[in-house]
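User: Run a structure prediction on this.
Assistant: Running it now.
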Amino acid sequence: MKSLIFLRLLLAFSPFWASAVLIQHASKSTFNKLLNENKLVFSAFTSKSIESLSSFNTNFELASEDVKTPFVTVDCGEEIELCKEHDVNAYPAVRLFRNHGNETNRYRGRRTSSAIKSYVTKQELPTVTHVQPSSLPSFKTIDDIVILAYLLPGQTSLLKSFRSVAAKNNRDLVFGFTTDMPSADAEGLAMPSIVCYKNTDGDNRVMNGHFTESNIEEFLAMATPTLIGEFSEKHIDKYMVPGKLTVYIFASTERDQTTMRHELTPVAKKLQQYVKFGVADSVEYGPMAKNFGLSEERFPAVVVHAPVNDQVFPYNQARKVTAAHVEAMLMTILEGRATSGQVFGDDAPEIKIEAESSGAKTHDEL
């Protein structure tokens, strides 16, 4: 059969997590039927025969879990006319079809399962969700960044301001509010308050007291950026600042990237005036890691680069990366007590890291 339908019937412990439908290698008739029957359809035009696309195909399948929107893959090796009809010239090409196919948005974000799921989650939710107490735990972790207002029932003018700001930003952020006082008390929050939950790095931020639209916008501008960004060749200038050290964190999995961000964000916050941190995909930027003297068999890995004099300081890849040891490493370098090529972290706990294999990258619509 050309169309393999997989229904994932999940135990929905809140209204924000629902059963997902993944339809693989859909034919033209199946695809058009989906568009006609659904307000949203998320599609990947890809290939099942190109080995380098297998990693993306797996990530797309994983992202379909715990969302309501149907996910569908189209094999452009078989459905040539369907791919031409939707102007697919390179793949994977990822599209969101809205309002029964009358509106099409090209997805140009990262091809990781979490990034894909995050994008679709924001399309599914209302501009502002009224969150009930039983659903708060799941809502606070529904996306990488969640903005939640804690309001008293009568604070309608504040809710109006919150909705206004959310309407301008809900394509990028998830917004919700609760009027449950015990939930605010449990987190030590006054009412009103707005909390920015940052699940990627754990660096949650809080704004207490009454607010205006401009207050919220200023809070979002301050609270939402991550101190440890994602390195890309396009934005290399951000990581080559002469007056700062650069810490590169090479990791091959989303889990490792999140773990490293949670561990090292406190250090990044403490030393942000002197140090720039960035996470680099160890598969895509493997040659860069090798040029820094890192072994491609052991990731995640950390290396410090001083752009001003091109000095490099690796962290022992056989040792666990801890905030305390990385901070000590950076202080030694900043104080001029280190020599180029010096390896740090030898006194950190020893770990055993198994090598992970991964498929090669391929050209796509990005």
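The chain has three domains: 4-123, 125-223, 228-334.
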